[in-house]
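Q: Hi! First time asking for a complex rather than a single chain. Here are the components, and I think there are two in total. Is that enough to go on?
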Amino acid sequence: MKGTPQDFDTVYEEHKLLVYNLALHYCQNITSAEDITQDVFVKYFKNPEKFRGEAQLSTWFYRVTINTSLDFLRKKKRKPFLGFLDLNSVYEPSHFDHPGVTIEDQEATERIFKAINTLPLKQRTALILSKLEEKKQEEVAEIMNTTRKAVESLVQRAKKNIEIFLANEGF
Amino acid sequence: MKNTIDHITKFNRAEPSPFMKTRIRAALEQAEALEKPRLQWGIVLAVFALFFSLNLVAITKDKQSENDSYIEYSSITTDWYAQ
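A: Yes, that's all I need. Here is the structure of the assembled complex.
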């Protein structure tokens, strides 16, 4: 590991909630979120010098957590019997287990996450960052390396798609 | 019934397991432990490849000069027959 033990503790403590909760929003499962969290911090601590003087470290952690989570989702997507025909497989967690959700909201939240899991990846990321992480659109644009207008458009389309999905599911 | 993203209750910030730090440290140590032998084997293979290519060049040059000698010899014998 590169850097001092104090660096490790400081960086970990400052960013663990960001990484872990963002991973949870993508995979909705404690075990998977912990695996993603481990991968993200290992990536950082293997080469911490790479990130000195660049964009804010938290922006880097957001980006890497998003990419690591999306890689995870690609590997875990449910495949039908004839996998080569699978064009729109959707990630479904083995069991919904988001510790950030209160028990009263569990059912409604699970339903909404089912809808979120069907969104195209950019819409999903924009929605998670702005609605679940409560970042401003400018911050989301910086993380996603795009414009504020693009983020606004992605979030609007995501919300529309979620409403359509829930309506089709009878909610 | 809550059915849109705007109605979702705010999330509580969940904490990762207290063992996460230990897991990360262990994963880093494992990655470091794997890197050293890889580097050593890489150097060994590079030296071997260099040695092999130098030998190949030497063998090729030997063969070339052997062929050249053969041609010279065959032209000598042809000349001898011609005489």
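A: The interface with chain B takes residues 1, 8-9, 12, 16-17, 20-21, 24-25, 33-34, 37-38, 41-42, 45-46, 98-102, 104-105, 108-109, 111-112, 116, 127, 131-132, 134, 158-159, 162-163, 166, 171 of chain A (CB under 8 Å). Let me know if you'd like any chain examined more closely.
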